[in-house]
Amino acid sequence: MKCPTYSSWFRERRLDAVCQILRLPAVMLSQIPGIGPVVKAASTTVGQKILMAITGLLLCGFLVTHLAGNLLLYAGAKQFNHYAESLHSWGILLNVAEVGLFTLFMAHIGLACSTHAMNRQARRSQYTQKESKQEPMALPSGGASGWMFVTGVIIAFFLVVHITDMRLKKNPFIDYSPAYQNGPEAGPDEFVAVRLVLTNWTAIAYVIGLLALGIHLSHGFRSALQTLGVNHPRWNRLLEIISLLFAWTITLGFLSLVTWAAMTSGTSN
Amino acid sequence: MSDEHLNLTLRIWRQDGPEDRGAFRNYQLDNVSPHMSFLEMLDVLNEQLIASSEEPVEFDHDCREGICGMCSLMINGQAHGPDRATTTCQLHMRRFNNGDTISIEPWRATAFPVVRDLVVDRSAFDRVIGSGGYVSVNTGNAPDGNAIPIPGTTQEVAMDAAACIGCGACVAACKNASAMLFVSAKVSQMAVLPQGRTERTERVLGMVAQMDKEGFGSCTNTSECEAACPAEISVEHIARLNREYARAALTAR
């Protein structure tokens, strides 16, 4: 039973305030002449979802290239380090790509917060009992679609851990010195660094993060297509299968690297 | 079919008005015929309440044959009760067992404020329709039949969308209280037909803007609405709404 106490009143006002703040960028952008109408459209519920779908699919594209590059770990130290060096040889272009990727993530997360806040506003008093009419699903509360925000938050946390581990090499639980055996000028041996991270106990974050990613993608990929208008009775079943395959191929692909590192940790490579 | 009469405990949401806090009240209702519809059962309860000088339970209803979209009710956590493709008025008491406790709540959405007890104000839907869900026509003589050729399959798509009775079960069942299934049905039924295509841009922009203004949530593609819809409207129409919207947003003059 709901009591309109001071705290619940405060909670509702706070929700309104958060929604106002989250809408600010779109409101300001819509004042720019020329792109105004498009941005205004992008600030509606439908427009925000379309933008989420586009950023989500672009991030899926990133995952494909990221996994393809990482699978070179199986080819051995020479090939993997060659790949890392050629990426680094892009120089400023690599930084531009990193900024672009960061922007994509921030846009996707920002839109998620904005739509989540609007959705909370749309139902202020909850049902005391709520059941689904859909077929029983693998996960409670509507299958993977009910877990998008939770898995999204887990992935965001994992992203911070992952960048600290691999990009910045600042994980306090890992001694990175074996990766710097080639002298201070040569830069780190990325192959050794990756193995150091994945064989450390903190690699448990990778397992959790990747499983969350699998759940997120198993709904997200198909959902993004639907939001972009891809739905036809003749193709829907195939699209569902492709989406599930995509989600778990990416996830198991990355997970296999974690397992590989753990199983070969005794051997020097 | 068993003719055994049912003794039920009804857990019903009572709320004196929009500002009232509201609470559940339990009622014992004995000797319920399994052949009654759910609404007839509530009628019998109200007779019993009136006889004991209590306020009857307010609930929405009209045609009682599943076509008007007036009846609502969240029955044991499900919009229009446990069956698919069924409105509350088409639900029969034989779906329940002797001794059951049945929980009855109103639709819950910010855009559907509770008026009293189980009655919610669904005029937000009317305002969404008023913002574009129509075709402007010249009055006068009726045009010739088949003057505009329309393929049978296209007619079927439009007719499937037009089956929406506007009851609001999609909003009630959606975890985001989103009205996307309703709005998409009302956009689709006209967007696929030549008569409706003339105003498609203004229609979708206007209806989506009004939908947001009313405070409905956004679509997470959970398809819970499709499962709850008594008219079996498909989420295929939501994809069409998204296409219509993207097209309109990019090309509107």
Detailed description of the structure:
- The complex is a heterodimer of chains A (269) and B (253).
- Chain A folds into 2 domains: 1-43, no CATH class; 47-123 and 133-263, Fumarate reductase/succinate dehydrogenase, transmembrane subunit (3 helical TM bundles of succinate and fumarate reductases), CATH 1.20.1300.10.
- Chain A has helices at residues 6-29, 36-42, 45-70, 77-88, 92-122, 148-167, 190-199, 204-227, 236-263.
- By secondary structure, chain A is mainly α.
- Chain A contains 9 helices and no strands.
- The mean pLDDT of chain A is 89.
- Chain B has 2 domains: 6-115, Ubiquitin-like (UB roll) (Roll); 122-251, Alpha-helical ferredoxin (Fumarate Reductase Iron-sulfur Protein, Chain B, domain 2).
- Chain B has helices spanning 38-51, 123-130, 152-162, 169-173, 180-191, 194-197, 200-214, 224-228, 236-251, and strands at 6-14, 23-32, 74-75, 78-79, 101-105, 114-116, 119-120.
- In chain B, the strands form 2 sheets. Chain B has a 5-stranded mixed sheet.
- The mean pLDDT of chain B is 95.
- Classes of the chains: A mainly alpha (269), B alpha+beta (253).
